[in-house]
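Objective 1b of the project was to move from sequence-level analysis to a structural picture of ligand recognition. The entry below was assembled by the postdoctoral researcher (A.K.) and checked by the PI before modelling. It contains the amino acid sequence of the target and the SMILES of the bound compound, pyridoxal-5'-phosphate.
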Amino acid sequence: MPDLPEKLPEPLNEDGRVERLKDILIPECIKQEYSSERWVRIPEEVRELYIRAGRPRPLHRAVGLEKMLKTPARLYYKREDLSPTGSHKVNTALAQVYYAAESGYTRVVTETGAGQWGTAVAYAASLMGLKSTIYWVREAYEWKPDRRRFMKLYGAEVLASPSDKTEFGKSILKHDPNHEGTLGIAISEAAEDALKNPDTIYPVGSVLNYVLMHQTIIGLEVIKQLELIGEVPDIMIGCLGGGSNFGGFTLPMIGKVLRKEIDKKIRFLAAQSEAAPNLVKGTYSYDFPDTAKILPKIKGYTLTHSFKMPSIWAEGLRYHMASPIISYLKHVGLVEAVAYPVDEKAVFEAARMFIQAEGFLPAPESSYAIRAMIDEALKAKEGNKEKIIVANISGHGFLDLEAYSKLLNI
Ligand SMILES: *Cc1c(COP(=O)(O)O)cnc(C)c1O
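Corresponding predicted holo structure:
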């Protein structure tokens, strides 16, 4: 934020919504949300938790994929899939639950779509001895019994949303007892629960500035790892739903670019689904990040909070709005975005190539970044260019095998 050419647009304080945040969100995180400090210290306890969660995570050269594609490009990928719960989301879950415990809270509540965020919060809460309740979009809750069991093993209470635990959930169930749920509804249920219970606070999984800041541990490690091997990337690629893994991966490098510490033009490319092409097709304007309009409006690329998004297997990319900081960087032309078709065939084919060439099973979401990396590597081949392409693998797909089975007929 201190390196941006102008001040990032702030949340709108309509009807006192900004003041109300202090009853929902973790106090230290609100401070970080509005901070324009270049560095915020990682508490020693959180650094230890990161070590316990397997940080630093390796950066691999994709030699197998380079050979398979016969590309002159050098391909690298960051291993955020090497996470106890399966995704990068532990990076911020650990920090947020730590700050929650520091402030005396004994319970955390949150929503989850694909299930990755809920698992990360359940994990962090269990390590730190807090109770956790996860409101999980019913549609995904139904088809992912293994991830449900995973969260419960950590001791979490896991509820299909809409649930009958909140007034908002009940009001929706009254009209439609079989409502499939949406991320917005689940967010609203979690926010209502946190507002009602003084021992409870609400960690947020993506979009907000402080979440992206916690995730910059990814990009800071990548900068050091690239320095060790003397590489400067031409392209950095991440998948993008709300923007947390993409932001965490790219923002430290974008900071260097803005401070003119790099004399190479680096492209920053976000890979999305046409089911939720917020950066590609949205408008840059103020909108609610949740359908129940509890949180204040923020400025970002949005498809509007009531936009109906078709179902995809990469559920984690299905979000109507991109993070304010990434949206701003797209607005000024520093970040680019590409969206892949809703049938996901091209993306799952890319995942198959990746697993056969590299051996690791990516999350369906991460496969969007892999698709974009492969496309860029093939362009480099056409132009016979030695491009250096670095992608972030946001998670593994061990609990998404049903998606692979359906899409790849295996
Ligand atoms: C949540 C998630 C995403 C999308 O969220 P962002 O905030 O855009 O990073 C991508 N990949 C995985 C594995 C996820 O769990």
